[in-house]
């Protein structure tokens, strides 16, 4: 079975089209203003409107207010929520939507305990820990920290590129990869060529 792929941080409709054409499974829209990949509701509506059935539209938040999440959900076609801050399990589940939870990986991170708190999530997204930076670091973490077994699907993130995607799959056997900076031509601007290369590497066995 092929590893699933989410391409995150889309800010342009043409980039979304490139992601769909390359065969990725999900796109991510960043609703976090400090990010260079931030999109407002109007832009998000425009991008999501071009996404066909069976490609998941993910809304990424970092410690949002309840009102903001509800506003996005009321106005944009969103299939999955991604919480990338210090949100609690209770906070994440109050919207009654499928969600994934980001976990900043440190040497002592207890994934089983986190899986207990987020027992109803659709996946745990393991990302690089960097003090003061919630995500989109462009840096990998020590993949030996990825558990071989987990009761939740593991989504590997952090510094993935067309050059390391196949190796990441071989070493960690995740359910999915989540990439942002590694397929960009510039901050918030995706490269169709890098997206295609990334998908080819995911399909390649090492
Ligand atoms: O992309 C961002 O700007 C971002 C901002 C705040 C939180 C998360 C963000 N992106 C997520 O970070 C990971 C890894 O990104 P990268 O491949 O290392 O650039 C990915 O899950 C993005 O969804």
Automatic annotation (TrEMBL):
Entry's EC annotation: 5.3.1.24
Task: Give the main EC class.
Answer: isomerase
- For this protein, what is any one GO molecular function term? phosphoribosylanthranilate isomerase activity
Annotated pathway, please?
Answer: Amino-acid biosynthesis; L-tryptophan biosynthesis; L-tryptophan from chorismate: step 3/5
Q: Which InterPro entries match?
A: Aldolase_TIM (IPR013785), PRAI_dom (IPR001240), RibuloseP-bd_barrel (IPR011060), TrpF_fam (IPR044643)
The protein's UniProt keywords, in alphabetical order, are: Amino-acid biosynthesis, Aromatic amino acid biosynthesis, Isomerase, Tryptophan biosynthesis
Catalytic reaction annotation: N-(5-phospho-beta-D-ribosyl)anthranilate = 1-(2-carboxyphenylamino)-1-deoxy-D-ribulose 5-phosphate
Top-rank taxon:
Bacteria
Task: Tell me if Isomerase is a UniProt keyword of this record.
Answer: yes
Which Pfam family name is an example for this entry? PRAI
Alphabetical list of Gene3D superfamilies matching this protein: Aldolase class I (3.20.20.70)
The UniProt transmembrane annotation reads: none
In this chain the N-(5'phosphoribosyl) anthranilate isomerase (PRAI) domain maps to: 5-200
Report the family membership.
Belongs to the TrpF family.
Q: What is this protein called?
A: N-(5'-phosphoribosyl)anthranilate isomerase
Organism, scientific name: Thiomicrorhabdus marina
Lineage start: Bacteria, Pseudomonadati, Pseudomonadota, Gammaproteobacteria, Thiotrichales
